Amino acid sequence: MHHRSIHRAAGCLLLVGISLAACASPPAKQQNIRGALTAIGSPIQSDPIGAWSSAWKKTFTATSLSYSPDGSDVGLTALATGQAYYAALDAPLTAQQQDATKAECGPNGAFSVPTSVTSIGVVFNMPSIRSLKLTPDLLARIFTGDINRWDDKAIAAINPGTTLPDAPIVPVTASTASALTSASTGYLAASPSWSSGVSNKWAKIPGGQEVKNFSDIAKKVDGTAGAIAFMDSASIGSRFDTALLSFGGSFVRMSKDSVAAAVQDGTTRTVATGVEFRLPDKTDHGYALGNVNYQAFCTSYKNGEVASLVKSWADFVVGPDGQVASTYFAGVASPSEESLRDASRLIEKIGSDQ
Length: 354
Prior knowledge:
Blueprint: H1 2-13, H2 20-23, E1 35-41, H3 46-59, E2 63-68, H4 72-80, E3 86-89, H5 95-100, H6 102-105, E4 110-124, E5 133-134, H7 136-142, H8 153-157, E6 170-174, H9 179-188, E7 209-211, H10 217-222, E8 227-232, H11 233-236, E9 241-242, E10 244-246, E11 251-252, H12 256-264, E12 267-271, E13 274-278, E14 290-298, E15 300-301, H13 304-318, H14 320-330, H15 337-347, E16 351-352
Parallel strand pairs: 1-2, 1-3, 5-10, 6-7, 6-8, 15-16
Antiparallel strand pairs: 3-14, 4-8, 4-9, 4-14, 10-11, 12-13
Helix pairs in contact: 1-14, 3-14, 13-15
């Protein structure tokens, strides 16, 4: 049923002049859902939350959402102290984090569920190169400065027949900590050439250039001949070419289909802290470089109206209409259908002290 309902919602978006709200299934007791939500969390989720908010408010017309992208940790602290109704997180809740929310969220504390996947591509500003293939080892050597020319023999060896220019490679990175950097360095950590492990901050790279935020990378790459960088899919759009990467199988270009294939190979589990979804480390045909994004909610709110408001938001986000909205308007991918179904079951249990 869930699979068919996603296709139904997707079909609605193809009808010119019909709003997403017109496609949504009428929720029960819709007229009773009203109020203003406050949420704080990861800047990575700003675009999908904007897409969800627009669609949700068209369905629940007496609602509003104020979202502050102040960071995952800030959001979690705000949820634990009653300053926000939900938190947008870069990773699933830990047991320790859940314990910290019990004073505000009831004896069971908060729980987290996966809501979207932000894919990450390797972009490069070298127009003469097409269908460039790169391995974790090559990228590890590039992002440590060990390989610094585009016509390096190691790059040429896996790109036979491709004319590689005699030009410097300029790695571009962001100095601010980001979950997207964690995901990128996680991919590099598969190579013995990468000794820095998984980190949310890049080390200085010889011959590289640095910007402040992940969102600033696109402009720097666009203006720097020979640049290469890890970049989120929404920023890439149709503006940049991306390298074909390997995840233990054939070389794969980032696309909606290849990301969906990786999601199908991912794993879902429900634990005491909520639902967790993990992209596969290895996949034959999928593109598995990305960050799984989460939202954390209280299991119990102190006010029944607030609990209903939060539940309506959460249920919409993980439902088919919400997932179509974020995919279509924010360029993120959906977690697995299994993880979304499991998330919906937990959301239905949200209650109140009243």
